[in-house]
Design a protein that fits this description.
The complex is a heterodimer.
Chain A (H helix, E strand, L loop, with lengths): L9 E4 L2 E4 L16 H14 L13 E5 L3 E6 L3 E3 L2 E4 L5 E5 L2 E7 L1 H22 L5 H14 L6 E9 L2 E7 L5 E3 L2 E4 L3 H11 L6 H18 L7 E7 L3 E8 L44
Antiparallel strand pairs in A: 1-2, 3-4, 3-12, 4-13, 5-6, 7-8, 8-9, 9-10, 10-11, 13-14
Chain B lengths: L30 H4 L4 H5 L4 H7 L1 H17 L2 H14 L12 H7 L7 H4 L12 H9 L3
Helix pairs in contact in B: 5-6
Classes of the chains: A alpha+beta, B mainly alpha.
Chain lengths: ~290, ~140
């Protein structure tokens, strides 16, 4: 059997298979599209049998941003979904980009994470090279150029907010590369619920506490009205002097308490035989990890 | 570095000749080196981004040079391309990974991080090209 791969023919000699790398091209980095044909064939085979290929985990989010008197407030929920299952009850959707610039990510979780990490590195290198603190507009421009280059296949919608020499700024960037600059923004599957709260109660130049309450209410509206958002509200307050990352600022959804105990009493099942086999083990390390049970 | 997308400069962009031209030196399928060919593999791109990513750097360079020529005159891109050509010659042996430091500095990509630095880093690839074949190919003996 000889495979039809592009640059490395496989030979079977007797019962030994070996691969000869006879490619004369120098290898380059970046995305490799070698497996896309194989994936298409696999998916076709699976769908014939009625199964479907696994999907990338999306965050199914509500993220929001607001400009108030002294700076910017970013808010996000903390649920990550995998189709209809909650994959992570307490994930962090507000990512660090620069000391005074933070970014909320919605869409595919891995894409948002990697994109923001790359942006953070690029911003650091750029500000070292120019010798100046970074601008929010610079982050937005690099993001939109990169997302446009990949034509929306990198599925991350982002809200970039921060304070720089031009004052507090807030931008939203969509997966295909378009961006908006507005005083308040929401993105994600719960965007409609959150933006309705903003449209109702937003005023320019709000005070800090009032603005925090408004963002909290908008994210809570997303948590209650959207199935893809849930758990806690995270806030990030960025002003010229300080950055306050309030993780778990509010927990509007508490897990319900059970009314009675549903465990069987010891002795419910009759014991027929009992054998004890002692294992001689040494305790090397003991650590306790608390799980969210009951 | 991404310049503005000037549509007028795109007329010189690299044409789409084919995804994996399997022709060897005599214009016929080179079965020994590249395996059997299949029409479906060659004609249809498997992923919409495959073609645009393959030529992305080339197209960017062409657009940048065209803009530079319009702004500063012919000598500017000529001089830069001469420097690129000189920097491209500083390489290790063909089967070893080269750092391309001079080329990166000229391009300005020594202080940016993109997917080509994170994914599929050639320095960490598990397969190495056959030293004899690659050197012979480079010297034109093959």
């Amino acid at each position: 059997n000889v495979s039809c791969q592009e640059d490395s023919p496989v030979f079977r000699f007797g019962r030994v298979t070996f691969m000869l790398n006879t490619s004369t091209k120098t290898p380059t980095g970046g995305f490799s599209f070698e497996n896309t044909r194989r994936n298409a064939v696999l998916e076709a085979n699976l769908s014939e049998k009625g199964y479907s290929a696994p999907n990338a985990r999306k965050t199914g989010t509500t993220i929001a941003g607001l400009i108030f008197k002294d700076g910017v407030i970013l808010g996000a929920d903390t649920r990550a979904t995998d189709d209809m299952v909650v994959a992570d009850k307490n994930c962090m959707k507000i990512h660090y980009i620069a000391p005074k610039i933070y970014c909320c990510g919605a869409g595919v979780a891995a894409d948002a994470e990697v994109t923001t990490q790359m942006m953070s590195s690029n911003v650091e290198l750029h500000s070292l090279s120019t010798g100046r603190p970074p601008l929010v507009a610079m982050v937005t421009r690099q993001l939109k150029q990169m997302l446009f280059r990949y034509q929306g296949h990198i599925g991350s919608s982002l809200i970039v907010g921060g304070v720089d020499v031009n004052g507090p700024q807030l931008y939203s960037v969509y997966p295909h590369g378009s961006y908006d600059k507005l005083p308040f923004l929401t993105m994600g599957s719960g965007a409609a619920s959150a933006v309705s709260v903003f449209e109702d109660r937003y005023k320019p130049n709000m005070e800090l506490e009032e603005a925090k309450q408004l963002v909290r209410d908008a994210i809570t509206a997303g948590i209650f009205c959207d199935l893809g958002s849930g758990s806690n509200v995270d806030l990030c307050v960025i002003t010229e002097k300080t950055v306050d990352y309030l993780r778990g600022y509010d927990q509007p959804v508490q897990k319900g308490l059970r009314e009675g105990t549903y465990r069987y009493k010891p002795g419910t099942t009759a014991v027929l035989t009992k054998t004890v086999t002692p294992l001689t083990l040494d305790v090397v390390d003991e650590s306790v990890q608390v799980m969210d049970t009951e | 570095m991404n310049t503005r997308g000037l549509r007028s400069q795109l007329k010189d962009s690299v044409p789409v000749t084919g995804l994996c031209p399997q022709a060897g030196p005599y214009g016929v399928q080179d079965s020994l080196r590249r395996g059997f060919s299949s029409v479906k593999n060659e004609l249809l791109p498997s992923h919409p981004l495959e073609l645009s990513e393959k030529n992305f750097q080339l197209n960017q360079d062409k657009m940048n040079f065209n803009t530079l020529r319009n702004i500063q005159g012919l000598h500017a891109p000529l001089k830069l391309q001469m420097e690129y050509r000189a920097a491209r010659q500083i390489q290790r042996l063909p089967f070893l990974p080269s750092s391309n430091l001079a080329l990166d500095t000229l391009r300005g990509s020594d202080d940016t991080i993109g997917f080509e630095d994170i994914l599929n880093d050639p320095v960490q690839s598990e397969m190495m090209g056959d030293p004899h074949i690659m050197t012979e190919y480079k010297l034109g003996v093959l």
